[in-house]
């Protein structure tokens, strides 16, 4: 109503309907909140108790603090007080629950949509060349996982993970166990690697008990770089070599009868247990408890004797596809591929056998005889000459301060050759091993350099890459050298003559290391390995006799094929005994395989 003030209007309504604020002599409305208005607006509502705070916040965010001071008082609020005659149906809308027609691809890990391709200027949702960006994620500052360069492409910054080509579409690696877990087996303990890495036991260097076999001298010409434009082919030599398990070793059996120690093992089995936390593939160790004696044994067709290839690589070699493989787990590797983990392990084992025989000078007049002849060689039954090999039986003290009696371990160690010291002229024992390159461009190579062009100029980078990709294998070799008290390790670098064939190989070079120094470079702790051995043995000893009162028990320690976990199973005493004849038949090992001999 024109000409009538708001105070008079309120006073009249209050007097008639007894509604509104208390009537006072003052005509002002101090302290009463009401919406702003102008005299030209139609009065539809008396006051809006919520609009002022919300409107003020919105205006402050859009225009800053001085927004209200810059506007005409009450302007723009007429629509808030307009009387709506009917319900406005335009404010309602139907929600579309159907999926968008455009298909997106998600990461296999973490989710999120991936956009790939060449980056465009100003494009915020397409990654740069080789980059990526997740859907719904805006630009970020450098140091927050991604950053955007001037070309508009997203690149990985600090804290972010750079994905490789088709990294989101990699198949799930489900490896098989090295031994089939049978229904009658009883699991006694499950230990994860985090617990094993915290174990520690200081042990002395050990003492020599006896030695067997003989050694040839190492050929120093292999230490020199090969002459340019010439190739040194790896030869296949027929020599009798033995790798007998603990329970079949006559020397260890006699030492057990003489009560010389409590635990008995071979260096290849013991090194696998001591370096268990570095392993990725599955393996198993048979543990025999006979009275108060414990034997660390191995099965026939075990995986401990095989030399793995790139086991610790981030992109390890893939298994071949089988007809029963699910479509979502296809690896793309053909069944007849020579670059599967199993075929590579057989090839590497063959290379190590032949390389150790080739780098020695076979001379009957210049060889070092041990105290006793080879305990496994029977001249009347063998037709092939013996390989250069010496077996050293050594004893280590694993006793604790709380032990009432000595707690000793006897291990059979091996050395491959002998060499004259340049200064003192004394004979030094060598461990000879070989690293092999199958194809530096193939899947599973682990980012290795081309040995033919980089071994001479970037030797440190080549060795560092091998330490990363073959951490478990090199740790086992170093542990075996330290257990044998070898003076040096000789590591050969052998590559395929043709990357597409695993039959012919070339020796590219040989490097020598001291075992202790090499262990420090690899961050290898022998005290942690001894702690693992003592823990497993104490676990076996704590079980005592079985339900029938017998002290003879058998266990199997199995590394899980897909998890960093080891499990201890108790198995019947007759388990694996059906393969005893096969064990005796494979005491002599003849590994060949080179297609061409020189």
From TrEMBL:
Keywords: Cytoplasm, Initiation factor, Protein biosynthesis, RNA-binding. Residues 115-124, 134-151 have a biased composition (Low complexity). GO terms for biological process: cap-dependent translational initiation; formation of cytoplasmic translation initiation complex. Residues 103-179, 317-337, 579-598 are annotated as: Disordered. Residues 322-337 have a biased composition (Polar residues). It comes from the Eukaryota. Its main location: cytoplasm. Residues 164-176 have a biased composition (Basic and acidic residues). Residues 303-317 are annotated as: RNA gate. It is found in: Cytoplasm. Pfam families: eIF-3_zeta. GO terms for molecular function: mRNA cap binding; translation initiation factor activity. GO terms for cellular component: eukaryotic 43S preinitiation complex; eukaryotic 48S preinitiation complex; eukaryotic translation initiation factor 3 complex. Component of the eukaryotic translation initiation factor 3 (eIF-3) complex. mRNA cap-binding component of the eukaryotic translation initiation factor 3 (eIF-3) complex, which is involved in protein synthesis of a specialized repertoire of mRNAs and, together with other initiation factors, stimulates binding of mRNA and methionyl-tRNAi to the 40S ribosome. The eIF-3 complex specifically targets and initiates translation of a subset of mRNAs involved in cell proliferation. In the eIF-3 complex, eif3d specifically recognizes and binds the 7-methylguanosine cap of a subset of mRNAs. The RNA gate region regulates mRNA cap recognition to prevent promiscuous mRNA-binding before assembly of eif3d into the full eukaryotic translation initiation factor 3 (eIF-3) complex. Belongs to the eIF-3 subunit D family. This is Eukaryotic translation initiation factor 3 subunit D. It comes from Lithohypha guttulata.
């Amino acid at each position: 109503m024109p000409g009538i003030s708001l105070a008079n209007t309120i006073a009249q309504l209050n007097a008639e309907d007894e509604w509104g604020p208390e009537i006072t002599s003052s005509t002002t409305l101090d302290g009463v909140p009401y919406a702003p208005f102008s005299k030209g607006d139609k009065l539809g509502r008396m006051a809006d108790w919520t609009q002022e705070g919300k409107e003020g916040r919105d205006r402050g965010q859009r225009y800053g603090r001085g927004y209200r001071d810059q506007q005409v008082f009450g302007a723009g609020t007429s629509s808030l007080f307009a009387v709506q005659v009917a319900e406005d149906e335009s404010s309602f809308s139907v929600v579309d629950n159907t999926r968008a027609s455009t298909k997106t691809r998600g990461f296999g890990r973490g989710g999120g949509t991936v956009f790939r391709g060449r980056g465009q200027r100003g494009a915020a949702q397409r990654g740069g060349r080789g980059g990526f960006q997740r859907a719904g994620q805006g630009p970020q500052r450098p140091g927050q996982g991604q950053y955007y360069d001037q070309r508009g492409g997203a690149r990985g910054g600090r804290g972010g993970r750079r994905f490789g080509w088709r990294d989101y579409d990699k198949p799930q690696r489900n490896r098989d166990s090295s031994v089939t877990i049978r229904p009658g087996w009883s699991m006694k303990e499950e230990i994860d690697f985090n617990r094993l890495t915290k174990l520690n036991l200081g042990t002395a260097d050990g003492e020599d008990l006896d030695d067997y076999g003989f050694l040839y001298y190492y050929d120093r010409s292999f230490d020199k770089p090969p002459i340019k434009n010439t190739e040194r082919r790896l030869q296949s030599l027929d020599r009798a070599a033995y790798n007998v398990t603990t329970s079949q070793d006559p020397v260890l059996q006699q030492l057990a009868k003489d009560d010389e120690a409590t635990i008995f093992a071979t260096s290849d089995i013991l090194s696998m247990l001591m370096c268990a936390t570095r392993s990725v593939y599955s393996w198993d160790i048979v543990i025999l408890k006979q009275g108060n004696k414990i034997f660390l044994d191995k099965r026939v067709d075990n995986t401990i004797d095989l030399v793995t290839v790139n086991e610790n690589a981030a992109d390890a070699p893939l298994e071949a596809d089988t007809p029963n493989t699910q479509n979502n787990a296809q690896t793309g590797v053909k069944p007849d591929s020579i670059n599967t983990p199993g075929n590579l392990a057989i090839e590497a084992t063959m290379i190590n056998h032949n390389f150790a025989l080739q780098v020695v000078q076979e001379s009957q007049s210049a060889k070092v005889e041990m105290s006793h002849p080879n305990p496994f060689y029977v001249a009347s039954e063998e037709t092939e000459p013996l390989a250069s090999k010496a077996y050293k039986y050594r004893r280590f003290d694993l006793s604790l301060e709380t032990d009432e009696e000595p707690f000793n371990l006897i291990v059979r160690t091996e050395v491959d050759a002998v060499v004259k010291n340049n200064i003192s002229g004394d004979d030094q024992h060598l461990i000879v091993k070989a690293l092999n390159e199958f194809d530096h461009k193939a899947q599973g190579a682990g980012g290795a350099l081309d040995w033919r062009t980089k071994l001479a100029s970037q030797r440190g980078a080549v060795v560092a890459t091998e330490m990363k990709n073959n951490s478990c294998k090199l740790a086992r070799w170093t542990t075996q050298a330290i257990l044998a008290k070898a003076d040096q390790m000789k590591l050969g670098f052998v590559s395929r003559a043709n990357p597409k064939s695993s039959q012919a190989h070339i020796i590219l070079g040989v490097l020598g290391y001291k075992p202790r120094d090499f262990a420090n470079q690899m961050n290898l702790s022998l005290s942690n390995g001894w702690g693992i051995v003592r823990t497993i043995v104490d676990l076996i000893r704590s079980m005592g006799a079985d339900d029938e009162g017998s002290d003879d028990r058998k266990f199997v320690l199995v590394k899980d094929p897909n998890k960093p976990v080891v499990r201890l199973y108790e198995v019947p005493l007759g388990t694996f005994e059906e393969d005893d004849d096969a064990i005796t038949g494979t005491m002599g090992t003849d590994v060949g395989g080179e297609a061409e001999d020189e």
